[in-house]
Amino acid sequence: MALLEIEKLNLSIGGTPILRDIDLQVDAGESVGLVGESGSGKSITSLSAMRLLPQSAKLAGSIRFNGCELTQLSEQRMCHLRGRDMAMVFQEPMTALNPVKTIGSQIAESLQFHLKMSRANTETRVLKLLDRVGLDPAKFSPDRYPHELSGGQRQRVVIAIAIALDPKLLIADEPTTALDVTTQEKILDLLKELAGENKSSLLLITHDLAVVAQMAERVAVMKDGEIVETASTLDFFRNMQHPYSKKLLAASMLKPKAEKTHFEDSKPLMRVDHLVRRYRLPRKSLFGPAQFLDAVNNVSFEIEQGESIGLVGESGCGKSTLARTLLALNKPSDGRVEFLEHDLFGLSKSELRSIRRNMQVVFQDPYGSFNPRHKIGRLISEPLQLLEHISSSQRHRLIAAALEDVGLTIDDADRYPHEFSGGQRQRIAIARAIITEPKLIIADEPVSALDVSIREQVLDLLNALAERHGLSYLFISHDLHVVRAVTDRVLVMYRGKIVEQGVTSQVFDNPQHEYTKQLLAATPDLAKTLEQLEAEA
After folding, report:
1. pTM exceeds 0.85 for this model
2. Which residues share a beta bridge with 117?
3. I need a labelling partner for 407 at 20 to 30 A (CA). Which of 93, 264, 333, 348 fits?
4. Domain 2-249 belongs to what topology?
């Protein structure tokens, strides 16, 4: 029996067609994966089902939930359905949560609205919900605010809000996109467990086919506002029909980088020796002893000219702190960082400014790292201030060369960031990083928020640039498939320490440290999941 049934759904916003003839069904107790790239219409389909659309939206067609036609319901009736019978887990928990309200008060809202619970009963229920989603109330007080929690912990709070009343339908919109693999595994296991406990239905929206194969009983593929293919999970992977589905599958199966053992220079490009970055913690009492946290603890490694190094580990392990220290944005508490045979922290300001042209960074969110009021030409030329005596003609030539290197044209220099897609913006971020012809690029999660096909294009671009310009990379990522596709060696970081390092293929095929084994086990593996499905069939 269908719990959610969407038929011939058409949607336009401001006169622009968004969805066309959508047919989608979720049966009672069933898990359905809705997959496709950004802009394909996945999220707006779920928002249509929840009736959370902008005022300019025009909806036509049928959306039935448990036999009730939602398109005919008033907003007041929908408010009684949302949260109680159907609930949604949003992609970005920090924007889904109210930053000025405690997590306890936000979980309590639906309990008080729908059930009119007393304050004492609400507080008891909130504690049970926190414990149910893996947040021990003894450690994670309901009086905490969202900013006091990690990304995975905030996502658990959003899930606690969604399941507070045991809804019949749970819609999860990219619930694990920006989470590290161990946190992702816990969140997915939690969603599966909760759906099983409540015998509720799950509509999982994602671009990750490995997650879909692991979680869903049926798959629907969206492209350009239409559902182009739907089938049971095993049938879908056994016999894909639509070219777009095959394209998504091909982009998901990243090939390991060919092993590289010889590098240009005998002397390392960068040498990190017993590096420590220590932070002082607040005192527990007025006269108590000072306490410290070693975010980076006795880290040593080298990067050769032309070598690509992967840095992996879960959130909070010290990866970003290490990257900021290597960029000389943080001063180390102890240890030494040599770059081009210079002690980075023994240089004067002018000397450091001069050497910075050889070290650039690509951030995780390119849109957040760009000034939206500036045109692309100005944005990517910002690092040129590190070079002296650059004429306007030289500047124009360097901008054109950088854009061309990343597959764009000089005409794009006159456009603004919002006029580009996510993948194009990441290409622009890479153009900004290579414009000074650096020797080392530190890439901090550069593809974590990108669709699989765009991710593949960006990774191919990074590999091509490394070959063309002899670049070295420090590639920070929580996606081990990505690390294997672009790196020669890998460093595994855990609680501030490098617990394992070596040639990427050797570390991944024969991990020695228990934490490395844990990371590999938590990473969704499409090939292995499909083998399991075939064995169970």
Report:
1. no
2. none
3. 264
4. Rossmann fold (3.40.50)
